[in-house]
C-alpha cells in the first residue's frame, strides 16, 4: 500500500508566510524557508506554497523565494497562486519548484493543463479545485447534491460540476487533484469524506484533501473513509495545534501507512 502523505500549506505574501481567514486579517507567522525546513525535519512528506500577493513586485519576490526554497529544502514542494499562463507556470518550475498548482486559470483555460503536462509531464501539474454545495449546506447525503466549481478563492461560482471537472482535468493531463470544499474550509469541523470517497471512484490519479482539518480524527477519517491519498493543512501546523511527528504516530496506531 502506498504511504499516505501529510502536507503543510504555507500562504505567502510579499515573501512572508501569512495566515488569516479567507485571506483577510492577515498576519505574518514566519519565514517560509525556515518554516518549510522545520516541517521537513519533523517528517512532512511535501510542502505547498501558495502566493497570495496581488502586486507584480510580490510575484517577483515569490519567484525568488521559490529559488531559495529549492536550494534549502530536500522534500518535494508545490507552488501555486497567480498562475494564469503557461509562462507563469514555466517560470516557477524553472525556478526549482517540483510541481505547480493551477486553479482559476485551468477553469478559464482548460488547455493550460494539457500545455503544461505535455511540456513538463503530468507529475508536475496539480489541478486545485475549490467547490461548494449549491445550497450551501452540508447534509448527510452530501454526494446527492451538486458541487459547483468556484474560482478566485471561492468568490465566483461557475456552471462546472466537481466530478465532471475533476475527470476532465485528469484526461487533460493533471497528475493530481487538490480538492477543497468551500463549505468546510476554515471550519475545522472535518472534511466531507463521502464526497472524497465518491471522487476517488472517478479518478485514477492521487487526490489531496484540503480544508476542514481540526484534529487527528479529521485527518484519519479523510485518509481512510475518504480514500484521499494526502491531507493538506495550514493553521493546525503553523500554530502548533498538531505536531507532524505526533500526528503520524497516531495515524500509525490506527493502521494508516505513513512515512516515519
Word description of this protein:
This protein is α/β, with parallel strands linked by helices and 260 residues long. The chain has a single domain, classed as Aldolase class I (TIM Barrel). The chain has 10 helices and 12 strands. It has helices spanning 32-42, 56-72, 86-94, 104-108, 111-120, 162-172, 193-202, 216-224, 235-238, 244-253; strands spanning 5-13, 16-21, 24-30, 47-51, 77-80, 99-102, 125-133, 147-151, 156-161, 176-181, 207-210, 230-233. Strands 1-4-5-6-7-10-11-12 form an 8-stranded parallel barrel, surrounded by 7 helices. Strand 4, helix 2 (56-72) and strand 5 (77-80) form a beta-alpha-beta unit. Helix 1 (32-42) packs parallel to helix 2. The radius of gyration is 17 Å and the shape is globular.
Gyration radius, rounded: 17 Å
The fraction of residues in strands falls at: 25-35%
**How far apart are the termini?**
15 Å
Main structural class: alpha/beta
Helix-residue proportion: 25-40%
Query: Going by CATH, what is the homologous superfamily?
Result: Aldolase class I
- Major β-sheet profile: 8 strands, parallel, barrel
Number of helices in the DSSP assignment: 10
The helix/strand order is EEEHEHEHEHHEEEHEHEHEHH
- In the CATH scheme, the class would be Alpha Beta
CATH topology: TIM Barrel
Number of strands: 12
Amino acid at each position: 500500500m502506498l504511504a499516505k502523505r501529510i502536507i503543510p500549506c504555507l500562504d505567502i505574501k510579499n515573501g512572508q508566510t501569512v495566515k488569516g481567514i479567507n485571506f483577510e486579517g492577515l498576519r505574518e507567522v514566519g519565514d517560509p524557508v525556515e518554516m518549510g525546513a522545520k516541517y521537513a525535519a519533523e517528517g512532512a512528506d511535501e510542502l505547498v506554497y501558495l502566493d497570495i500577493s496581488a502586486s507584480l513586485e510580490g510575484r517577483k519576490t515569490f519567484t525568488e523565494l521559490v529559488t531559495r526554497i529549492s536550494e534549502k529544502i530536500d522534500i518535494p514542494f508545490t507552488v501555486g497562486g497567480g498562475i494564469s499562463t503557461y509562462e507563469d507556470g514555466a517560470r516557477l518550475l524553472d525556478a526549482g519548484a517540483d510541481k505547480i498548482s493551477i486553479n482559476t486559470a485551468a477553469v478559464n483555460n482548460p488547455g493550460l493543463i494539457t500545455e503544461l503536462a505535455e511540456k513538463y509531464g503530468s507529475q508536475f501539474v496539480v489541478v486545485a479545485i475549490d467547490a461548494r454545495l449549491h445550497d450551501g449546506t452540508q447534509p448527510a447525503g452530501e454526494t446527492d447534491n451538486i458541487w459547483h466549481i468556484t474560482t478566485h478563492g471561492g468568490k465566483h461560482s461557475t456552471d462546472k460540476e466537481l466530478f465532471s471537472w475533476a475527470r476532465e482535468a485528469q484526461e487533460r493531463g493533471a497528475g493530481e487533484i487538490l480538492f477543497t470544499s468551500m463549505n468546510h474550509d476554515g471550519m475545522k469541523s472535518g472534511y466531507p469524506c463521502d464526497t472524497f470517497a465518491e471522487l476517488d471512484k472517478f479518478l485514477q490519479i492521487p487526490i489531496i484533501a484540503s480544508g476542514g482539518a481540526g484534529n487527528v480524527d479529521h485527518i484519519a477519517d479523510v485518509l481512510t473513509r475518504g480514500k484521499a491519498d494526502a491531507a493538506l493543512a495550514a493553521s493546525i501546523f503553523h500554530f502548533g495545534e498538531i505536531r507532524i511527528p505526533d500526528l503520524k504516530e497516531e495515524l500509525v496506531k490506527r493502521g494508516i501507512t505513513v512515512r516515519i
